[in-house]
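Holo model, D-gluconic acid. Inputs:
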Amino acid sequence: MVTGGSRGIGLATAHALGESGARVILVARSLEALNRAQEELKTARIDAGYSACDLRDTDSIAAWFDKCVAQFGQPDILVNAAGIQRRGLATELSLSDWNDVLAVNTTAVFELSRCFARGLIALERKGKIINIASLMTAAARRGVSAYTASKGAVGQLTKALAVDWAPHGILVNAIAPGYVATELNEALMADAAFDEWVKKRCPLGRWATPDEIAWPVVFLASLAADFITGQVIYVDGGWMSTF
Ligand code: GCO
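Output:
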């Protein structure tokens, strides 16, 4: 199950998981976008199912998850790739923007992960959760306070859930991407000064592609990562290793 599965890192992850033999369920808000993503995966001979869910409405997630399991079965892998961004200085950001960002990026990760884990525990099956964190899990940039708080929480939540569910064989890790060329960052890529800053600040001197985040997610979902849990792995071109 891949949230944010209709575009960006989520869709790239769906491709990589599908190519690796997983049955994929795409989750996103828009049915139209999900249909488009399903068609794109079909051209890669990946037969994905999908289910629409507005992760801002965190109270509705549990009922939606039960419906999803009734339709597709209990998933073994959950990738929390859905994320929204609302940029603006903390003095100007609206409280509703703050609430939306924390709902989708953090509370929905908590709630959906609990639904997923409860299902596996009831079936006495093991499983894996991979959360998509961020550079903002470790550091801040001016004007993205809600996103930074939400992704900082994702980093610690990853560790907390890993410790809670280790006895059940449910492993929880996070991939923290650097700057990735996705729709979420379109405005930043179009800003020549920002683009130049990213290329100068990143030791590899470029933006990442979504695939470069997707395959480390597949690694964490695979048997090769069966002794890794509670980790936040920075896939950032060296960004966090230099000042
Ligand atoms: C921003 C970007 C970042 C990236 C990513 C970096 O406004 O700075 O949206 O937050 O999306 O999270 O790791």
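Helices lie at 8-19, 31-43, 61-72, 95-123, 145-165, 186-190, 192-201, 211-221. Residues 95-123 form the longest helix (29 residues).
Archived with the compound record.
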